[in-house]
Amino acid sequence: MADQPFNAAFGQAQQQMQKAAEEFGRMFKAVPAMPDMAGAMASYQRNLDALAQANRIAIEGVQAVMRRQAEVVQQTMAELAETVKTLSGAGIAKVNPAKNAEAIKDAYAKAVSHSKELADLMQRANTEATEVLHKRVSAALDEAKALAGSK
């Protein structure tokens, strides 16, 4: 008879454990199944590859701009040295204001042209990098849709 309270408590504990296990099972069924892990990892790797490619394109673009800027600076300095040489050889008496104004106008036009060229270089690199990312995002969304549909 002393065992009856123990047996009753043990029986209740067993029933509670069984109910908890059943509840856990119902709860687990509500969780969506894990997608194809290999497919998900392959998709993630393609995302990283696309990001690395976009970064390479952006870095190459910056390097191209820097190289071109260095060329422009060298060219400008050579032209400036030639102008100074010409002006110093001409002397103050032979300075022609109209010619000087034309030289300044030409220098300004070159500076604007170089600025546009550098901006175009950077824009091309950014467009290429963005296109790589755009294609990958589109493909990743298609992959996610396919993974969701395969359940």
Which key features would you list for this structure?
0% strand, 151 residues, rod-shaped, mainly alpha, 3 helices, 89% helix
Summary?
This protein is mainly α and 151 residues long. Helix content is 89%, strand content 0%.
Biggest β-sheet description: none
Number of helices: 3
Which residues form runs of ≥5 with pLDDT under 50? Answer: none
What's the total number of strands?
A: 0
Can you describe what's shown?
The chain is built from 3 helices and no strands. The chain is mostly helical and 151 residues long. It has a domain of 89 residues. The protein is rod-shaped, with a radius of gyration of 37 Å.
Topology:
Blueprint: H1 3-30, H2 37-90, H3 97-149
Helix pairs in contact: 2-3
